[in-house]
Design brief:
This is Class A beta-lactamase-related serine hydrolase. The protein is of the alpha+beta class. It has 11 helices and 15 strands.
């Protein structure tokens, strides 16, 4: 649809409504955050088409924050860039890049080892069948979420994350037969990037995405530094009722979502992605094809999520399908193709996911009403 730029009066009205929405969230009950404490609620909404450039921060001096699984989009972009350089194919079998010992035990389902059948596409789309070290069930030992809290000073190497799935979990299905969200699969993708480029995953992120886009405040926690200088203290991170922003155990995310960023930097990334500065249109279209259902209202492509609001509640039918990703800490990076609007949110708490979507819905509704007025 054709969307005219909004008048100054309409833009001012939308700004007031956004302010009221975020202020209400900031004052209200925050999921997973103890009484008397706060997370650093932040929001950034930008649409050149509509003429909207809005920002909100509950703190007078908002700090960089952990973006959680939004980082999977960055990993997927690196893979897409390798594909465009003919260094990789969607259907490439990952066993060609790993030795049998590295994949041993990760893809065994009902006594059969499927490691030789797993492709890059399977890993990107969470259909490889591999377990999820971060949130999946364990058949022995302590669940990973507890290890983060009980071993706060532990620095996790990528291969230790694979070992967790190898030793304490089982594969959930043969490749290509079931969607099962898996951080373990994205650790393998990060290692795959390293095998092909010969560098470290974090170096490739800076060289291929962060530095070219001028994302000076974005870096991989405990593995690189922001190009702007010394890393600032992080915004609060609430996980299972504990504030963990200073825990070295956050090194566990790596290629599954170990980045620290800001709303401005994530806006740069989102715009560059949709403006063709990172990937060719055909590559991005393939990644956007959300053919797998993650849960009602959320579908998955290749490193990209799609929000289908009508599956949350039938009266939301007609809202646009957003493309992007969320993170477990109620972080959002989405793009509305109807109004060419980018939406960046940080709630900073794994208990605030429902609240974050209850905030996203009125944001998108306001944008749609304004565009149709």
């Amino acid at each position: 649809m054709t969307v005219p730029q909004l008048s100054a009066d309409v833009t001012a009205m939308i700004t007031r409504r956004f302010d009221a929405l975020f202020e209400k969230c900031s004052r209200g009950k925050r999921g997973g955050v103890p009484r008397g404490q706060a997370a650093d609620l932040q929001g950034r909404i930008f649409s050149r088409k509509l003429g909207i450039d809005y920002r909100y921060a509950a703190s007078p001096a908002p700090r960089p924050y952990h973006i959680a699984s939004i980082g999977k989009m960055f990993t997927a972009v690196l893979i897409g860039q390798l594909l465009e350089k003919a260094s990789l194919e969607w259907g490439a079998r990952i066993a060609e890049y790993f030795n049998s010992g590295e994949l041993n035990g990760l893809f065994v389902h009902k006594g059969r080892d499927y490691a030789g059948d797993v492709t890059v596409r399977h890993l990107l789309s969470h259909t490889s069948g591999v377990a999820d070290y971060f949130g999946g069930r364990v058949h022995s030992g302590i669940p990973f979420g507890r290890l983060i809290l009980e071993q706060p000073d532990r620095h996790w190497a990528p291969r230790e994350l694979l070992d967790f799935s190898r030793e304490q979990q089982h594969a959930v299905a043969p490749p290509g037969t079931r969607f099962h969200y898996s951080d373990t699969g994205y650790i393998l993708l990060g290692l795959l990037v390293e095998r092909i480029t010969g560098g470290t995953f974090e170096h490739d992120l800076h060289r291929s995405i962060l530095d070219p886009l001028g994302m000076r405040d974005t870096y991989m926690l405990y593995r690189s530094e922001p190009s702007s200088g010394t890393a600032e203290p992080l915004a609060p991170i609430w996980f299972n009722g504990s504030e963990i922003s200073g825990f070295r155990s956050l090194s566990c995310d790596w290629a599954g979502g170990g980045l620290v960023s800001t709303t401005d930097d994530l806006l740069r990334f989102g715009r560059a992605l949709r403006e063709g500065k990172l990937l060719q249109a055909s590559t991005l279209q393939t990644m956007d094809n959300a053919e797998h259902r993650f849960r009602p209202g959320l579908h998955y492509g290749l490193g990209m999520m799609e929000v289908r609001f009508e599956q949350f509640f039938f009266l939301l039918r007609g809202l646009p399908r957003l493309k992007g990703h969320i993170g477990v800490l109620a972080t959002h990076l989405f793009w509305d193709p109807e109004t060419d609007t980018h939406i960046v949110l940080n709630f900073g708490s794994e208990g605030a996911m429902v609240q974050s979507f209850k905030t996203l819905i009125p944001i998108v509704s306001e944008l749609r009403k304004a565009a149709q007025a």
